[in-house]
Fold this sequence. Notes:
Elements: E1 2-6, H1 12-19, H2 22-27, H3 38-45, E2 53-59, E3 64-74, E4 79-86, H4 95-110, E5 115-121, H5 125-133, E6 137-148, E7 151-160
Parallel strand pairs: 4-5
Antiparallel strand pairs: 1-2, 2-3, 3-4, 5-7, 6-7
Helix pairs in contact: 1-3
Amino acid sequence: MVSLQPLEDRHLPGMEDIVADPDALRFTRIPEPTPPGFAKTWLGRYQGTDERVGFAIEDDDGTFLGLALAPEIDREGREVELGYIVHPAARGRGVATAALKLLTRWAFDELGALRAYLHIDVANAASRRVAERAGYVHEGTLRSAHVKQGLRADTELWSRLPSDPEPAD
């Protein structure tokens, strides 16, 4: 069982692990090379703001399992970009799917979002499976939409509406 907890300073060591993980660097917006102190700066971006919201994914005993994020919230348009990054030690256990389901429910119930969406690197097959299991629909591919280290990459767009059927558990 996982839960989403507001990001706090106590989550910084787990975030530092994520920032050092090659897969997280490959498939996320974490800059490369990662600037010194980036995890602390990143944590600060999600504290004390309504522009974006971040949660730590934790198990029943409070162990940090990853991040569940709403990096873009359009309150007027009632849509929200969501994302998730699982700690390397917690991968392959269904953590991302469980967290995305909780994060999506939070976006619909707490923010009143009418559309939640994900941007997924076309090479990230594991993240595509998470989106499918969490009830998201593949809308298409945004060609050359993501820039990192001066290179452009294609990104898939996935979305979920409150009226979509609830995914199976």
